[in-house]
Amino acid sequence: MAPQKTPPKSKGRKRPKDLPKKGEEGYLSLTQLRNRRKRKKQKRDKEDAGAGAGAAEGGDGAAAVITSYCGSNTVAVAAASASITTTAAKKKKNKKKKHAKGSNPDQKYIRAPLKCPTVVAAQQHFSSLSLPYPITLGPLTRWRNISKLPCRSVNGGVKFGLFALGTHDVTVRSSQSPAHHVKINEGVLELERLCEECGVKPFQESSGEGELKFVIINVDRAAKKAQMTLVLNLTKDEELPTSLVELTKKLKGWESLSSLFLHYNKVWKHSNAIFNFDADSWNHLHGPQAIVETLVVDGLPYSVNLRFPPNVFRQANGAAFTKIIERVRTLMPEGGDGNVNVVELYGGVGTIGLHVLDMCKSLISSDENLNNVKAFEDAVKELPKKFRRKPSYKQLSAESMVKEGYLDGGAKVDVVIVDPPRKGCDDVVVNAINNSKAKSLIYVSCGFEAFVRDQKRLEDEGKWKLKVAEGFVLFPGADAIETLAVFERS
Ligand SMILES: C[S@@+](CC[C@H](N)C(=O)[O-])C[C@H]1O[C@@H](n2cnc3c(N)ncnc32)[C@H](O)[C@@H]1O
């Protein structure tokens, strides 16, 4: 007699007790139930998309104009709705569950980038001020041209990836990130393979041991090549272990490598700062010193060859930031007739300032990072002759710039441009802007909460009035919005 088969134990969900049992009317097998759940989910997703598109067209008083500058953008965009319905709240809860611990923070809102809390908050904020807040959204994939990825051991292998939400575990599939430029993903795969081949030890947070902490891959979009920086858990005085010597040798053979740098940053505990400020902690091993990037800016009557060595700030979404530069040019005061004196704080390598030179008499750009100076000056050398005398650079923090009087009554300043980090402007900077003779303030913000605080501090004294505000999704999928704002004297 054949042995009686015991039914296999179900690995997945258990059948809910209140459903019809086998033989009863309406009975569905586990597979049928799973398919029904799938169909429901697809329907929900469709509704999500539809609701978004509807809101974008119809509007709700929040002046939600959505501009997409990529025709092939097929994912739904959604304008904010001021009231969250019960269904929306439920969906949000479900999404929250789905994106709980362990998921990729870059992709959390990718199905509806304009529904992320910060975008919704920004739309509500400007709507409450009766100010239009058009939003520009670009491609949802392949937009990221720089990625800073921690190196950790995952299941015994070497992996590079973003920290998953709420953890210090790297997400394993970072080499397949849809946000990354293809050269980042190829670089990650190559690096993972070579690290294993050379026996490189990934950093371990618990013990502070291991050799390799981060890789920073910066893409030269024109050449389709990668500038790679390995952040080591070593001091510069320590000898490079054989594994890393081997790795650097082999990396130089990767056909898509443009340049290779080592950065020595031995810190015991996990720190958010990937780089330290010590100029001696860098070793340039291969290739050019900097990526040279020429943004294609509509209406710009000259070219700017921006320089990006690995130790300066670079916008991660170059294409989307170009749209901001185009709008800054349109919004420059006095019709951009070449008669204004501009002071730029938090200027980086001159990404904004150097693109408005034809519209100003003089430009003083500034930033606290000393590595910007050479990058800025090298870019200026390649400008058309008539523009070369206009710009100058101060390696100073914004706080020092204002303390040294660059915004004072006596200073030549008609327009101030600020593009601070997420925490916004320091009190002393806002006070100086309030008390300066400038007629116009162009504020590019990547930290919405800080922007609201600074806006209040600027307007409360009755000296400035916010005239224009526009949103740009620079990190589609993440909870963020870049705001371009123009203030004029009230
Ligand atoms: C958001 S980035 C913008 C840079 C530049 N506008 C660009 O688009 O590339 C902020 C810049 O502020 C600089 N920074 C941070 N804190 C600063 C401070 N207190 N004073 C001056 N610059 C600062 C950073 O070095 C960085 O270059």
TrEMBL record:
<keyword id="KW-0489">Methyltransferase</keyword>
<dbReference type="InterPro" id="IPR010280">
    <property type="entry name" value="U5_MeTrfase_fam"/>
</dbReference>
<feature type="binding site">
    <location>
        <position position="419"/>
    </location>
    <ligand>
        <name>S-adenosyl-L-methionine</name>
    </ligand>
</feature>
<comment type="similarity">
    <text>Belongs to the class I-like SAM-binding methyltransferase superfamily. RNA M5U methyltransferase family.</text>
</comment>
<feature type="region of interest" description="Disordered">
    <location>
        <begin position="1"/>
        <end position="59"/>
    </location>
</feature>
<keyword id="KW-0949">S-adenosyl-L-methionine</keyword>
<feature type="binding site">
    <location>
        <position position="367"/>
    </location>
    <ligand>
        <name>S-adenosyl-L-methionine</name>
    </ligand>
</feature>
<dbReference type="InterPro" id="IPR029063">
    <property type="entry name" value="SAM-dependent_MTases_sf"/>
</dbReference>
<feature type="region of interest" description="Disordered">
    <location>
        <begin position="86"/>
        <end position="108"/>
    </location>
</feature>
<feature type="binding site">
    <location>
        <position position="315"/>
    </location>
    <ligand>
        <name>S-adenosyl-L-methionine</name>
    </ligand>
</feature>
<protein>
    <submittedName>
        <fullName>Uncharacterized protein</fullName>
    </submittedName>
</protein>
<dbReference type="GO" id="GO:0006396">
    <property type="term" value="P:RNA processing"/>
</dbReference>
<feature type="compositionally biased region" description="Basic residues">
    <location>
        <begin position="34"/>
        <end position="43"/>
    </location>
</feature>
<keyword id="KW-0808">Transferase</keyword>
<dbReference type="GO" id="GO:0008173">
    <property type="term" value="F:RNA methyltransferase activity"/>
</dbReference>
<dbReference type="InterPro" id="IPR053304">
    <property type="entry name" value="RNA_M5U_MTase"/>
</dbReference>
<feature type="active site" description="Nucleophile">
    <location>
        <position position="446"/>
    </location>
</feature>
<feature type="compositionally biased region" description="Basic residues">
    <location>
        <begin position="89"/>
        <end position="101"/>
    </location>
</feature>
<dbReference type="GO" id="GO:0032259">
    <property type="term" value="P:methylation"/>
</dbReference>
<feature type="binding site">
    <location>
        <position position="346"/>
    </location>
    <ligand>
        <name>S-adenosyl-L-methionine</name>
    </ligand>
</feature>
